[in-house]
Amino acid sequence: ATLPLMAEVEQKTKFDTNSAASLVQDLRDSFSSGKTKSYEWRVTQLKSILKLVDDREKEIVEALRKDLSKPELESFVSEISMTRSACKLALKELKKWMKPEKAKTSMTTFPSSAEIVSEPLGIVLVISAWNYPLLLSLDPVIGAIAAGNAVVLKPSEIAPATSSLLAKFLEEYVDCSVIRVVEGAAAETSALLEQKWDKIFYTGNGRVGRIVMAAAAIHLTPVILELGGKSPVVVDSDINLQVAARRIIAGKWGCNNGQACISPDYIITTKVYAPNLIDALKCELEEFFGKDPLESEDISRIVNSYHFARLMKLLDEDKVSGKIVHGGQQDEAHLKIAPTILLDVPEDSLIMNEEIFGPLLPIITVDKVEDSFHVINSRAKPLAAYLFTNSKNLKEEFVRSISAGGMLINDTILHLATSTLPFGGVGESGMGSYHGKFSFDAFSHKKAVLYRSFGGDASARYPPYTARKQRL
Ligand code: NAD
Predict the structure, then answer these.
(1) What's the angle, vertex CA 382, arms to CA 376 and CA 383, rounded to 5?
(2) Which residues carry out catalysis (predicted)?
């Protein structure tokens, strides 16, 4: 009875949509004071976010348990600790990031010097998604603050406990004249989207991504769209199968029970190797989650009944019947679905044409592992692409011929936790990127500044354009 149903959540209106314009105006006025530009202000806000996460750790874990029954360790590793790391990195590097970057000049401008100055964009809107409701909210907010912007955060209504925790605490800890939280669903987000922003950072599905981009176009507002897609895993046969199976499981069922944007969506392997891979996955799944995974405390539930029904529809399609080789158990009352593996589902099935975003894992088989490249390239560009192999040639060919937001060889998910790498999609999986310095850059304008003196004033550039000048 305590589970949030889509309809109930949709009805919650916490923000008067008529006040969107005045909210943005207030922020604009505060931003104009220039206070967000100072290094000291940024550092104070970042330290406050860190303090919020430290002080409220227990409440955060509890909110994530309510929203997703997220296991405590998972909450700690993938939400709390990653938010902390993003904050600490920004604090450590901020001075360096803010420093104007010297640029080379050419003979055309001699004598001169040049630099690239990072300046805040202004007022930014961050719209986040429910699956990592803390990290996906605070991580972009950290980037926006580090870059000196005013921010409105709109957390996801599908994770209501985390949304209200952020609404309750964020403004208490930070400077709420320039950092605000607005709760709500489509109506509230639409009211916010009507306003003029200097950047919109959206995390979620591509359907709403298009709504965001269309709204932004009216004001010529740049957007970052962190979307999803079907992230493939190619499995070669010359590998350490046990390690590969464990890493696939960690990325799929160990990450929010598959409700993660870069979770393995489907596997491609050879017909000959598929039985070995399935056996290894079954064996490791049992070791991780026991004989009855529906009873396991170490696996998240499906977020709500809407998404449960969506996943069941993928599993119940006629084309897919008889293809389950492992799992398939479900408990609708508790919104639980066991890790489920399917073999050789048709390419035109729903499950192979929609992002799964849940605990179902189809395996497609090919004659030769190289044939997998064509399967991937015939589909929309994924957010992540994974390959398990020891072959140097296959690795090179994979990186060279497949376009994806990011790639990881011989593991899953971990590229997201590498702050020196940009995180973002390409094509249908999104545009723009963030994490580490890329977050700072995502919310900064790179202003080109050229300095000249009054010397070196070549007359050749001025009229009259005599024949002699044209020969120069
Ligand atoms: P969601 O339902 O939480 O929606 C995302 C945001 O869009 C929410 O804040 C919501 O209020 C808002 N929204 C919903 N409908 C709207 C509308 N009609 N108009 C305006 N705003 C609206 O999240 P979701 O979309 O179910 O999230 C899952 C998707 O997000 C998957 O595709 C997943 O791959 C992707 N995702 C991507 C990343 C990433 O970093 N690239 C991370 C997490 C999730």
Answers:
(1) 150
(2) 226, 261
Atom 24 in ligand 1: residue holding the nearest Cα: 204
Is 204's C-beta closer than 6 angstroms to any atom of ligand 1?
yes
H or E stretch at 79 = none
User: Measured between alpha carbons, how far is 93 from 140 in angstroms, rounded to an integer?
Assistant: 16
Greatest alpha-carbon span in the chain? 89
Task: Measure the N-to-C terminal CA separation of the chain; round to a whole number of Å.
Answer: 83
125: phi then psi, degrees, rounded to nearest 5: -110, 125
ipTM confidence? 0.99
Cα-trace Rg, the chain:
25
pLDDT, tens digit, for every residue of 189-221?
999 999 999 999 999 999 999 999 999 999 999
The residues assigned a catalytic role are: 226, 261
431 lines ligand 1 (CB under 6 A): no
The alpha carbon of 304 and the centre of ligand 1 are apart by a number of angstroms equal to: 14
- Token readout for 185 is 């669903």
Picking from 76, 60, 262, 257, the residue whose alpha carbon sits closest to that of residue 163 is 60
The whole-model pTM stands at 0.95
